[in-house]
């Protein structure tokens, strides 16, 4: 008489769990890095949108003085990045003179361990502080 065996042994299940654990230990930091790069890219895009709004403001009065970035109805663009969802960067207008401006995106808290502030000036120069 032949005995039929169904299922897996405890050793086989433990090996599978160990393999899944190793793969997830490698994949999770890579995923975190990917999301941090995405948030930084979104902040750069939001800075450029604000820069374009400031250029439109300049074309109406030939000055950047009086422009506002504060998230209200009278502002040119949002003061947060991303505009929807969890806040990762605060966008602020640092200086606005007659012929020049500087916008900064400052990381909020220690999200993604990003410690660099991104800047955009009127001549289109992106920089990090």
What percent of residues adopt helix (DSSP H or I)? 40-55%
Q: Summarize model confidence as the mean pLDDT.
A: 88
How many helical stretches? 1
Q: Return residue spans where pLDDT drops below 50 for at least 5 consecutive residues.
A: none
Give the strand order, joined by hyphens, for the main sheet. 1-2-3-4-5
Largest sheet: 5 strands, antiparallel
Q: How many independent structural domains?
A: 1
Q: How big is the Rg?
A: 25 Å
Proportion of residues in β-strands = 15-25%
Quick summary of this structure?
The chain has 129 residues and is an alpha+beta fold.
Set out the fold topology.
Blueprint lengths: L9 H52 L18 E2 L7 E8 L4 E7 L10 E4 L4 E3 L1
Antiparallel strand pairs: 1-2, 2-3, 3-4, 4-5
Describe this structure in words.
The protein has one domain (10-128). Helices cover 40% and strands 19% of the residues. It has 1 helix and 5 strands; from the N terminus they run H-E-E-E-E-E. The protein has one helix at residues 10-61; strands at residues 80-81, 89-96, 101-107, 118-121, 126-128. The chain has a 5-stranded antiparallel sheet with strand order 1-2-3-4-5, covered by helices on one side. The protein is rod-shaped.
Please give a handful of descriptors for the protein shown.
19% strand; 40% helix; alpha+beta; 129 residues
């Amino acid at each position: 008489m032949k005995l039929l065996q169904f299922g897996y042994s405890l050793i086989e299940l433990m090996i599978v769990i160990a393999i899944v654990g190793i793969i997830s230990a490698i994949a999770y930091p890579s995923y975190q890095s990917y999301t941090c790069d995405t948030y930084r890219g979104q902040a750069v895009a939001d800075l450029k949108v604000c820069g374009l709004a400031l250029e439109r403001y300049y074309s109406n009065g030939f000055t950047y003085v009086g422009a506002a970035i504060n998230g209200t109805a009278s502002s040119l663009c949002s003061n947060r990045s991303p505009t929807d969802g969890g806040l990762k960067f605060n966008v602020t207008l640092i200086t606005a003179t007659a012929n020049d401006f500087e916008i900064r995106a400052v990381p909020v808290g220690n999200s993604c361990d990003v410690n660099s502030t991104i800047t955009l000036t009127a001549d289109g120069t992106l920089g990090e502080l």
